[in-house]
Amino acid sequence: MVKLRKYNRFFIQIIAAFSVFLLVSCVGNKYYNSKIEGKQIGITGQSGEVKSIDAFVAPYREHINKDLDNILAYSPETLDKSKGEWQTSIGNLMADMTVEMGNPVFLSREKKNIDICILNHGGIRSILPKGNVTTRTAFEIMPFENSLIVVELKGTEIREMANYILKEKKPHPLNGLQIIIDKNTLTVKSLSVNGKPLEDSKSYYVATSDYLSNGGDNMVFFRKAVASYDMNYKLRNLMIDYFKKVDTIPVIINQRIILE
Amino acid sequence: MKRRDFLKNTAASSALLTLGGLSLSSFDNLEDTTEVKKITILHTNDVHSHIDPFPADHPKNPNMGGVARRAALVEQIRKEEKNVLLLDAGDIFQGTPYFNYYGGELEFKLMSMLQYDLATMGNHDFDNGIEGFYAQLPHAEFDFVSANYDFKNTILDGIVKPYKIIRKDGIKIGIFGLGVELQGLVSPQLYKETVYNNPVEVAQEMTRILKQENKCDLVICLSHLGFKYSNDPEKICDVNLAKKTKDIDLIIGGHTHTFLDKPVIEKNSDGKEVLINQVGCYGINLGRIDFYFDKKNKAASGNGRSIMV
């Protein structure tokens, strides 16, 4: 036993010495970063193309294209979510079409009307380009599988919604609610719903996406919902149905958030 | 007895140390000290299922992007350079009907054909749920890293690892992933029991493992935290991460779809330079960072490294 321990000790010494040797050798082989070059390369038509990759994609593409390329409407202008501080033409369009297409469904099911619609600026994933509007356009703007939900909120939560919009400073698509802001203090001056002053204790029916109604984008005011109604209507399908219904896309520039 | 042991130990080590030192200097004389090694990092972020180029009449990005063109560019660079790594900083999924129709299968297959080495997960990679992501993994011939998402109670446990160490031409490259806070961004039904941990604390742990323990020559963070939030300057982002940590050489970012004119240089908590790059979105650009290595320790001699962006 004693002998074994002595042997162990010797062994440890060898290991320790060898580790030091290794360490020293490693340092000797070490490479040091002397220079860094960084750049960005644009991927353009001049980049060339790997034909086999394109051939691999082709059957997938053809299948989808058959589905997507039918023309549904025409847009006289390009609608862009980056054009506008408190509202944008594409945001206005989306909020308005959600009420226009969603309200008949809500009315027939619940015998009530939608008062307000709020969607999120981040959820608009593409511009609506000038020219022919196709099923593809709807997929590009609204790629998510989100569906229409109508949430019953008290006036106090609508007030929170207005404060949220002011804090976020984003042109979230909005319909039904008008927010008058003091341009100096950037605080809410007055709120009205479809022309009538907001009442704190009154119930309002707010159309939105299931994503936002679950508190997405930190829309926490939805957590205090009195009730919520799933319309089982995908927002993208709503958009496609709207495009089919209208011939020409309206360019809606009226203000929902007004600085005074 | 103990003291004698210690002395003996020290003596033995010193002897070998001298030996090591000797052999080292003789090696140096034989080897070319001017030998330079080059590691080329190529990267994308937020490609969002953009497989085809934008059409020629697209008002914003006409005729830009496209995976077959990206493949040509990557192929060309691989011909010119010996040590190429191709990385992606997340949000591979969601954005074109290719994702809605095929659930990410095509994205992963194409990235495998382009020989991507590694990617991290973005919030949209949870869009078909954690199961939807898992279901497509057989199509990915590359790994995913994420250090601050704890997948212990999910289907991804042991599959998505915190970091990966890749050796290229004798250079050891440690790469770890960081993801954005999921709560409020992704429905809990989709990310299930994925736990989000503090990116700064996790990054410090990662650099300890990669730089101190594993002696990596290069430490890269694949981040989906976002570049910077002007509305919320304290929110964790790549710029804040760079300032609050050390031993990271490069942060490849995503999430905010930031188009930078050129890579950004920040100072870390040790006062050393960190490079941050993000190349917008939709496969419009490819980022390229070249790291040159030689045996001259410029940092020790006070010259430092030169960064050309």
TrEMBL record, chain A:
The UniProt record lists the 5'-Nucleotidase C-terminal domain at 86-219
What would be one Pfam family of this protein? Answer: 5_nucleotid_C
As one GO molecular function, the record gives:
hydrolase activity
Q: Cellular component terms, GO, for this chain's entry?
A: cytosol
Return the PROSITE patterns for the record: PROKAR_LIPOPROTEIN
GO terms (BP aspect): nucleotide catabolic process
Membrane-spanning ranges? none
State the InterPro entries in the record. 5'-Nucleotdase_C (IPR008334), 5'-Nucleotdase_C_sf (IPR036907), 5_nucleotidase/apyrase (IPR006179)
Record-linked PANTHER family: 5'-NUCLEOTIDASE-RELATED (PTHR11575), ADL392WP (PTHR11575:SF22)
Q: What is the designated name of this protein?
A: 5'-nucleotidase, C-terminal domain
Q: What is the lineage of its organism?
A: Bacteria, Pseudomonadati, Bacteroidota, Flavobacteriia, Flavobacteriales
TrEMBL record, chain B:
Citing just one GO molecular function, the answer is: nucleotide binding
Fetch the CDD domains from UniProt.
MPP_UshA_N_like (cd00845)
Boundaries of every Calcineurin-like phosphoesterase domain copy = 40-258
| A single GO BP | nucleotide catabolic process
Give the matching InterPro entries.
5'-Nucleotdase_CS, 5_nucleotidase/apyrase, Calcineurin-like_PHP, Metallo-depent_PP-like
Instruction: Supply the alphabetized keyword list.
Output: Hydrolase, Nucleotide-binding
Name the source's superkingdom: Bacteria
Bilayer-crossing regions:
none
Q: Which family does it belong to?
A: Belongs to the 5'-nucleotidase family.
This chain's protein is named: 5'-nucleotidase
- Organism of this sequence: Flavobacterium saliperosum
Q: What is the lineage of its organism?
A: Bacteria, Pseudomonadati, Bacteroidota, Flavobacteriia, Flavobacteriales
